[in-house]
């Protein structure tokens, strides 16, 4: 049915990272969703990890851009070029594959269309989309086809997708543009406000990974770290000490927004599915699931047990790839 030698591909096209899953091989590529472009000639200089290392460090003629914003395509041509690069890197010169791409649950038909078109331009024979929380639930091993309710919260770079799932479909869902990137922005803003220090995106991300906690109380147990940046008063480089409590306070608003989306989704859910969720708990996926003390904070707010999926960063890509097995069903949709 499919061309010989052509393996179907599942792509988790994320705001921060792109993962590629090949049928029969699993995840074969995991790179940042970043493209470095020459502004004068328009040519692409680097893609992925190489391009990310250039963020904030490029000469005037080269810009490092993230073509995805808040889970959707912000720069169409660059996204298509980035996907083409990733597909060729994983596929080689094999024939045109069928491709399944993941989109946030709240996207419009126009945004879905843009993803499908960009994937075709990148070299797919045909493209299909799957909603992120559904893919995350499959990847986390939840019984999505069973008549029992499951709840998944996928906290990515651009969006947090919350959904209750039963019988192979999404029952209720929320997609908010509050996720990893907003946490980084909150850290940058807080350090600027309280320390008069300007730090870059990469530094903010390092601070988040090392000491960020969802709980101001629990943050007291975490050691502080030194942060380097540019002093806004003198304009010179400067090093300061930042505590985990500072960072926890900085990101509280984002954490509360995520909890709000979870509560709203639960409120919309039927009593039967709500009962199933209490039994099985809420499963966290995505990079944001690794935020320290997040499961306890969500469990405390919702009174429902919360677990982190086994490979939270890979769940969406695995689920997107697994859904390739049912590609005939997808074609009829």
Automatic annotation (TrEMBL):
PANTHER family: CELL SHAPE-DETERMINING PROTEIN MREB (PTHR42749). This is Cell shape-determining protein MreB. Belongs to the FtsA/MreB family. The keyword Cytoplasm applies. Keywords: ATP-binding, Cell shape, Cytoplasm, Nucleotide-binding. Forms membrane-associated dynamic filaments that are essential for cell shape determination. Acts by regulating cell wall synthesis and cell elongation, and thus cell shape. A feedback loop between cell geometry and MreB localization may maintain elongated cell shape by targeting cell wall growth to regions of negative cell wall curvature. GO terms for molecular function: ATP binding. Forms polymers. It is found in: Cytoplasm. GO terms for biological process: cell morphogenesis; regulation of cell shape. Gene3D superfamilies: 3.30.420.40. The keyword Ligase does not apply. CDD domains: ASKHA_NBD_MreB-like (cd10225). Its main location: cytoplasm. One of its GO terms (cellular component) is cytoplasm. ATP binds at residues 15-17, 157-159, 205-208, 287-290. HAMAP family: MreB (MF_02207). NCBIfam families: mreB, PRK13927.1. Signal peptide: none annotated. It comes from Loigolactobacillus bifermentans DSM 20003.
């Amino acid at each position: 049915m499919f061309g010989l030698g052509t393996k179907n591909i599942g792509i988790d096209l994320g705001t921060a990272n792109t993962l590629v899953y090949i049928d029969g091989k699993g995840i074969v590529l995991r790179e940042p969703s970043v493209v470095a472009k020459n502004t004068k000639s328009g040519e692409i200089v680097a893609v992925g990890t190489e391009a990310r290392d250039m963020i904030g460090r490029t000469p005037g003629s080269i810009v490092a851009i993230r073509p995805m914003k808040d889970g959707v395509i912000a720069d169409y041509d660059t996204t298509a070029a980035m996907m083409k690069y990733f597909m060729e890197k994983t596929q080689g010169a094999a024939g045109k594959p069928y491709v399944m791409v993941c989109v946030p649950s709240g996207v419009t038909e126009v945004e879905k269309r843009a993803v499908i078109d960009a994937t075709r331009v990148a070299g797919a024979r045909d493209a299909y989309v799957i909603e992120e929380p559904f893919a995350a639930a499959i990847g986390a091993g939840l019984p999505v086809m069973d008549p029992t309710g499951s709840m998944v919260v996928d906290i990515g770079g651009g969006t947090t997708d919350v959904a209750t799932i039963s019988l192979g479909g999404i029952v209720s869902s929320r997609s908010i543009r509050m996720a990893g990137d907003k946490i980084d922005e909150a850290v940058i803003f807080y350090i600027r406000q309280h320390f008069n220090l300007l730090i870059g995106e990469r530094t903010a991300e390092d601070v988040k990974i090392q000491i960020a906690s969802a709980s101001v109380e629990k943050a007291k147990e975490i050691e502080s770290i030194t942060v380097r940046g540019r002093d806004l008063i003198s304009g010179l480089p400067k090093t300061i000490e930042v505590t985990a409590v500072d960072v926890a306070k900085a990101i509280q608003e984002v954490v509360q927004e995520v909890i709000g989306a979870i509560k709203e989704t639960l409120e919309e859910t039927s009593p039967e599915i709500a009962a199933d969720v209490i039994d099985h708990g809420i499963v966290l996926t995505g990079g944001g699931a690794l935020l320290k003390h997040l499961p306890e904070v969500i469990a405390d707010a919702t009174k429902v047990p919360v677990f982190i999926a086994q490979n939270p960063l890979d769940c969406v890509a695995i689920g997107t790839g697994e859904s390739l097995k049912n590609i005939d069903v997808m074609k009829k949709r």
